[in-house]
């Protein structure tokens, strides 16, 4: 009943706004070759280059919408535009539908909303992605992340990553793997492209060419890589300066536990830029991670965005915490030169302190400070 009242109340307003927006989009968002430089100037005028705007395109992989609901209540709230797509095989033609999903955690309790799901009919997975590219070009966003519904996207980190980049140029990011036809970014880890790349693709593959430019299923990421290579666009290394990955198509449990990652999979065996296992697997600025299901998506989102710790600062025994302490200055006072300081190991540093404070005294200081037994 609540959902019905809310929809009824806003129907006229939404229709009017939608009608006006539709006219504006029809005028402005036509083919790039017809609008030329004006098109780019118009988009730049709306969104300055220092303000990345991200469209999140979610592909439904399951018949139910639990993962979509979880995404709507977590990471999708940080997107500037959202498209929900379900690709159907050509023999299962469907029209776009509105399905009930739930926004959770509002002050009024659970409130329903209607989510538009774009049903794209295609003869191959590439055709489905190609038609989706034409669908999302109506968004004025300057970056587009394509993701399956089980993926958690950290949009804040994504925006920070692309902020220095020129979105009018070609950019293509994700977890890259090798293939004899073309290196490509795997769809399971999410694929990020700039608006410049999107427009080059839709210009090269008009919608009537989508069906003829690919075949088979579950290979849309490979075809995207092939077609982008023909345009001179290839995957780039997205790891941080320590070699830790930003785009992950595996769940965090497999990545953090050495030996859990299936080494024989193409994801690992053919990785163009290998990512280590264990605690050093993932960059602190990671952009995507496989959440597996809706429960874990909520779980991961809570740990990342909601949980706070009150970690006590580490102390150096015998040093007043109200005083600043520079360990290099301490070593200089002990007679060590710069070369020795730079090459000193943690064990050597410990032994220096052990000569000043007995292990028993050091242990007692740490026990009192941190409450250890």
UniProtKB/TrEMBL annotation:
Family stated for the protein in its record: Belongs to the glycosyltransferase 31 family. Beta3-Gal-T subfamily.
Major subcellular location class: membrane
Topology in membrane: Single-pass type II membrane protein
Single GO cellular component term: membrane
GO molecular function, a single term: glycoprotein-N-acetylgalactosamine 3-beta-galactosyltransferase activity
Domain of life: Eukaryota
UniProt-listed InterPro entries: C1GALT1/C1GALT1_chp1
Keyword terms of this UniProt record: Membrane, Signal-anchor, Transmembrane, Transmembrane helix
Subcellular location: Membrane
Protein name per its UniProtKB record: Uncharacterized protein
Residue stretches spanning the membrane: 12-30
């Amino acid at each position: 009943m609540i959902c019905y009242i809310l929809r009824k109340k806003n129907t006229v307003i939404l229709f009017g706004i939608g009608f006006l927006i539709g006219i504006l989009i029809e005028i402005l968002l036509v083919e790039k070759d017809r609008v030329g430089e004006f098109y780019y100037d118009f988009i730049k005028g709306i969104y300055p280059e220092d303000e990345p705007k991200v469209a999140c395109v979610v592909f439904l992989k399951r018949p139910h919408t639990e993962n979509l609901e979880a995404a709507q209540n977590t990471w999708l709230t940080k997107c500037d535009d959202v498209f929900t797509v379900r690709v159907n095989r050509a023999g299962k033609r469907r029209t776009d539908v509105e399905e009930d999903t739930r926004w959770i955690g509002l002050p009024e309790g659970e409130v329903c909303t209607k989510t538009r799901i774009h049903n794209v009919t295609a003869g191959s997975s590439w055709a489905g992605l190609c038609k989706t590219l034409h669908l999302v070009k109506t968004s004025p966003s300057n970056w587009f992340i394509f993701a399956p519904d089980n993926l958690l996207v950290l949009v804040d980190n994504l925006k920070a990553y692309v902020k220095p980049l020129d979105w009018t140029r070609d950019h293509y990011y994700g977890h890259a793997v090798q293939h004899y036809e073309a290196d490509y970014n795997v769809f399971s880890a999410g694929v990020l492209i700039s608006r410049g790349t999107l427009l080059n693709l839709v210009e090269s593959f008009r919608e009537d060419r989508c069906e003829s430019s690919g075949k088979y299923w579950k290979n849309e990421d490979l075809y995207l890589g092939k077609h982008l290579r023909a345009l001179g666009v290839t995957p780039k290394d997205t790891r941080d300066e320590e070699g830790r990955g930003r785009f992950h198509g595996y769940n965090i449990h497999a990545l953090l536990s050495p030996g859990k990652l299936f080494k024989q999979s193409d994801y690992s065996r053919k990785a163009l830029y290998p990512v280590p296992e264990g605690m050093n697997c993932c960059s602190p600025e990671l952009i995507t991670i496989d959440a597996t299901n809706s429960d874990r998506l909520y779980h991961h989102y809570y740990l990342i965005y909601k949980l706070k710790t009150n970690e006590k600062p580490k102390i150096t025994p015998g040093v007043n915490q109200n005083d600043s302490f520079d360990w290099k200055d301490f070593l200089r006072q002990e007679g060590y030169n710069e070369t020795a300081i730079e090459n000193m190991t943690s064990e050597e540093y410990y032994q220096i302190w052990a000569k000043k404070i007995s292990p028993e005294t050091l242990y007692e200081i740490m026990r009192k400070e941190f409450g250890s037994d």
